[in-house]
Specification:
Blueprint (H helix, E strand, L loop, with lengths): L1 H11 L4 H8 L3 H9 L6 H11 L3 H4 L2 H11 L5
């Protein structure tokens, strides 16, 4: 799942939630929500995460998770 992969990547790279938040220009609490599975990143944030860790989309998120992320960004109930 996305949130578990994000935690794993952050820890493997010795990053804190705060350091990732600064690099992505988001709040630390938003990083925490992503890691807790309470929110999904916007497509822009997702793209920045992929660049930060030099990943392809499929390495980080399933298609179903992407669908949920898009629907959340559009304000639809997931």
């Amino acid at each position: 799942m996305f949130n578990e992969k994000l935690i794993e990547l952050r820890k493997q790279n010795s990053h804190t939630q705060e350091s990732i938040a600064k690099q992505l220009h988001v709040s630390r609490s938003l990083i925490a929500k992503w890691e807790q599975g309470r929110a999904y990143p916007t497509l822009d944030d997702l793209n920045n995460i992929l660049k930060l860790y030099n990943l392809e989309f499929d390495d980080l998120m399933t298609k179903e998770e992407l669908k949920q992320s898009i629907m959340a960004c559009e304000g639809r109930v997931v």
